[in-house]
Amino acid sequence: MGSYPIAQLREPYTAIRYLAERVNLPQMLRIDHPENDDTWSPRDICDGWAKKRGYLTAKAARLDTYRAANSLLRMALDGKICVWLRPPGFTEQREKFETCEELKYIKWVQALTADDQVAVLSSSDDERSRSDGDEPDDDDDSESEDDDEFTAAIANKFAALAGDD
């Protein structure tokens, strides 16, 4: 969540182990084992990533596993390495989770998000057509109303998640 700076971690290998237990990092990153072994440790994953990316220490020119670990954790924070987990007891209570009342709020937020993406795409098309020689409208009031509606839509998304109507 970015609550603690990744660069200040003293020991990032535990977090790498957590990721590797849930995601097949060697296969996903397409890295080779540094010692041509079959078993992977967090340090081996970091060594493989350092080798692939060319991360070397300044003085001894050894693989910089610490820098590689920080790089992998930044990738996870940015969403390039995606970890998703099912709730505890999902298999036994699958029907309960699939018919949960809060699911309608989640679908509503997802629908609004999809609408926002369509709105963003159409506004970028408008900007593109303006750059092709069309003159923009001088109606500043309608643009501010659109911004107010967009802000209200965002506020409503979070109100729905919080249970406020």
Describe the overall structure:
- Residues 119-149 are annotated as: Disordered.
- Keywords: GTP-binding, Nucleotide-binding.
- GO terms for molecular function: GTP binding; GTPase activity.
- Residues 134-149 have a biased composition (Acidic residues).
- This protein is an all-alpha fold.
- It folds into two domains: 6-78, no CATH class; 94-162.
- The protein has seven helices and no strands.
- Helix 1 packs across helix 3, helix 1 (13-22) packs across helix 4 (65-78) and helix 6 (103-131) runs antiparallel to helix 7 (140-162).
- It is elongated.
- The model has no long low-confidence stretch (mean pLDDT 77).
